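Case study B.
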Amino acid sequence: MTDSNGDVFAVFLPSGRRGRFAVGTSLLAAARQLGVDLDSVCGGRAICGRCQVAVCEGSYPKLGVESRAAHVSGVEEAEQRYSKLRDLAAGRRLGCSARILGDVVVDVPASSQVHKQMVRKRAEARAIDIDPILKLHYVEVAEPDIDHPAGDAQRLMAALHEQWSLAVERVELCVLSHVQRTLRAGEWKVSALVRNETDVVALWPGFHDRIFGVAVDVGSTTLACHLCDLESGEVLAAAGAMNPQIRFGEDLMSRVSTAIMTEGSVAEMSAAVRQAINGLIAETAESAGIAVTDVVDATFVGNPVMMHLLLGLDPSELGFAPFALASDAAQTVRASDLDLAINPGARPYILPMIAGHVGADTAAAILSETPHHAGELTLLVDIGTNAEIVVGNRYRLLAASSPTGPAFEGAQVSSGQRASPGAIERVRIDADTLEPRFKVIGSELWSNEPGFEEVAAHLGVTGICGSGIIEAIAEMYLAGIVDADGLIDGAQAQRSRRVVRDGEATFAYRLWNGPPVVAINQRDVRAIQLAKAALYTGIRLLLARLGDRALERIVLAGAFGSHIDPQYAMILGLIPDCPLDKVSAAGNAAGTGARIALLNRQSRREIEELVRRIEKVETATEPAFQAYFVEAMAIPHKSDPFPNLANVVKLPASAPITPISAQNVTVGVQSVWGRQRRKSGGD
Amino acid sequence: MTDSNGDVFAVFLPSGRRGRFAVGTSLLAAARQLGVDLDSVCGGRAICGRCQVAVCEGSYPKLGVESRAAHVSGVEEAEQRYSKLRDLAAGRRLGCSARILGDVVVDVPASSQVHKQMVRKRAEARAIDIDPILKLHYVEVAEPDIDHPAGDAQRLMAALHEQWSLAVERVELCVLSHVQRTLRAGEWKVSALVRNETDVVALWPGFHDRIFGVAVDVGSTTLACHLCDLESGEVLAAAGAMNPQIRFGEDLMSRVSTAIMTEGSVAEMSAAVRQAINGLIAETAESAGIAVTDVVDATFVGNPVMMHLLLGLDPSELGFAPFALASDAAQTVRASDLDLAINPGARPYILPMIAGHVGADTAAAILSETPHHAGELTLLVDIGTNAEIVVGNRYRLLAASSPTGPAFEGAQVSSGQRASPGAIERVRIDADTLEPRFKVIGSELWSNEPGFEEVAAHLGVTGICGSGIIEAIAEMYLAGIVDADGLIDGAQAQRSRRVVRDGEATFAYRLWNGPPVVAINQRDVRAIQLAKAALYTGIRLLLARLGDRALERIVLAGAFGSHIDPQYAMILGLIPDCPLDKVSAAGNAAGTGARIALLNRQSRREIEELVRRIEKVETATEPAFQAYFVEAMAIPHKSDPFPNLANVVKLPASAPITPISAQNVTVGVQSVWGRQRRKSGGD
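Model:
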């Protein structure tokens, strides 16, 4: 159906954009004219295959269109060549090659759209819009002309302008150093990597269509690196390693001490972590089968000390109040500034920091978990040696850190250990017999189930990890072995051989008779009380600034947050009350935030602006700290300043006790307390 | 005379800006309010002494003001301290300390103005406005506050905003690496070096008020470095050295050959020149008594091959047509990119290039000699192995290069040598006797004057340099020894023993009987003819594009241009006719342009925009080249396409021959030709 001008009608799905075009217009050109989101790297040369579309067969009466696959031109040489090389799926056409001959309805599949979305596994997490700061453009550059002596770089820029409408401002020195060789090697056809639409930062001869980036989480204990395809957003490989700085000090503060005490140690610690990161990048690149020079971007997250050392900055000031950062701003540096063995045109991006103890990792977690988009009052907390606490919603966002110490990680606990195979991670105590049952990492069996002996023989029961300690003490409390003050009740030794005297006036509770013996003693309970009081106090101080409003959502970030059962965390009073179905574990939210910053350019500005707006609270100088802290030592916390938990279902006191399970829990924590009160007969 | 509001009247000279101020306002504050150009680095803390003013004594009836020195407050502690340390001149007050008590007229001396001008020695050269891209600012930074955990860099930026109204965007990593140490060493008072009003690139504890830059001319033979005070513009020290790349090839093209032939030679040549430049910078810094870390900026000029090698770029493509540059744009790089041992925050600036053989040196010469500001049609030419030719005025500017070869530098000439002591540089030949007289470099005596024998014994007469060859051949022509075709007339051997046979049918003219013999032979004349024909042809091709208009001004840049006598250059036909009083030598115009780019930020944009607009002409591909070249071989050039020399005074044929002197010459070249014609009896 050509109209009087000889034009034909084309409709693009799913956008529904439509228009009339001269017979012979390519589908890609038509899509561009209509502003349809149809990708292309090669600029319509049947090389990249990014502009694949499907021409619909059928009638569209509302549009008055009869669409037929035959209404576009047949497959010609260039498309056939592509199809042979790359196996074009049946029904798919290259938009740049198929020309419109009659009315058509064209479907643009998601994979052919420039702005793809990466849907994340967790339902509540936002999808990542793939829109990296770097884009590849294939261009044909004019050959040098003695009568128009523009430099090679200038003719490259002109080609980018003519063929891609890019107003490129500069070609980086690292590209200039090989622009002449590359243009000639590619016979004047090259793939240019353009950063921010203004800077040419890398160049390959001929057609080059895949670029990669790494998102690196620099933890004080472990380093994690994710290699991503910058076009699809897909994680192609991941690798982790211990942070080699451990030889300069086990924890953060001992590394800061090293920086203060030992001349030259800052440079050594920087070199060590950079080298390890290079190792991880090389490892992921190898396992993905790509060259490290194709790694063209990198993002980094971590706590302030780690970020200082990564940047080669002395972290000494972070060792004592007022914990002054060298800079809290995001940093965009050169690959060479960090000695990174990736493409020299890469401009690694270090996310901004929030305060002396609230780092780029927290900024990244915010980017991942978006409390600033939430209507609900949200707590985002990453519990480690320090807990980084963010509270707020789209109107206000507050952040603080609280020095929880290493107890939650199994340190400073007599039988404590890191979360590794053989560590007790789940604990239940029968309130009548005081007999425990538990699970160890590496097995799905409870310790009272058949076959556990084999597990114990094989894996060993080697200690108890953070999540196990939380459950153990919470269950001890629910069973009446520990009272609200955190005292292990010696009287219970009469009821059970599990409760044993281990000091003049102190008792312990034995979970496992060994070897080795795994027990919770009075000092262990105290250590956990101190840690959880620090955490709870931090959260409460932020909530106090918001008028003691009740939390409506809790996101537990980090490894510890993923392992603990939120219910037990509430029983013990680590975190304030919140409907359990509104509590979720975000896993490595910091790492995810690093990936978001890698894949989406806007997110960098978003987090930079947000971090400036965040209200930073130093908990230690808050007048109420001491009082809150003392209250928070109790199990559960004595005061309940958040009484309006509308969503909490209070079970009748006589209701049957549902076995506690992290899944599908609809009861709130107050009902659990009800259980506790009934069991221990208190109140 | 306070008005009803208690305000008093202040007038600032020379601007004449005036206003009413509350009693007690400092003169600096008043000047700022009025937009008076009054300098300050310390921000009104009586430290820098940049805001010195003089309060006038006297009546200003037109203003209705009785100005008295006593109308400002007396010298108090801070000003007294400054005066003791730095010796404040009598009558001078610190504008920041002197407060207005009554009506005053205040004189702001040139040295206290921010925008100073550097007047250049040559009357026709434009003054340099001192306005470097870098500015020092003394600030007092807030100490870190645990409750407002802004980074040190952010508090520095805030101080720059509050105290200097600067919207700084970033603190460079090289500053971040010591920002914490420096702030504390300066007890929160620091001097920040701000680039382009946006980037903090260097930082010193306390008050630091002097910064320096180097302007470097990278010649293929010699390197020259000028160390400048960025505040006054003054050249504090200069140093030169041979370009160590000479061991990779004497001239440009042999270095390009090395680059093409020898693996790794580009990196070696880059390293060699960078090391030599570092040596010159260190030498100038030492002789000025400053630290190299106080060298915070650098500009570089040179031909395209030199600029490529400086930047570490392979110059191979410049070895053959079409002579493609890697980039013709100006480059702003990091000090570390060039391995420069100066302040790491420095951002060396390489001026833009014009074409494959017309480099940053020509761009710099344009900046110095401003043909683009001229109403007159101007030729700017730098004659070396290549001549870089710029022709035009404020409406159009054309550029080309012409391969003159090394003859003008004394190479390819039998008795030729570089311009060094003992070389003949001035030649006169008596048209009747054909006896020569000459001067050698290192002596003011003519060879026929008493005492010259001692000179000859002491210095030797070692050869003839470029300017001497020009004069010798021109005088040989004027004396009839050489004809218009450049043939040495063997018949003259009968008139003088100076003309000797030196081949089957060729003759030579002996200037000096040695040892060593210094003579001009037929091959020498041919070499000079070829060189001057190439030069003249290049100029004429550009003029042809402008409709064969006559030149109205000629600027001879470079060492050769400074040494040759323009009159002889015209006699020989190196350059077209032009009134002699409109011909000037600019000396090292490229070096001056490098200094302008160093001292004035606007000049960088000016030359970048101008270079884009310049019409680049490749002489070799011009159809008229061959015909013009043949014509230009004649002495003087046969055709005279520029007949309209309005200013040329034609001497009557009978007028006495004035002894030729480069000074105070008012006659034009056509009159000189008149002399030639009479002498040789031709035409």
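DSSP finds 17 helices and 31 strands in chain A. The remaining cases will be described in the next quarterly update.
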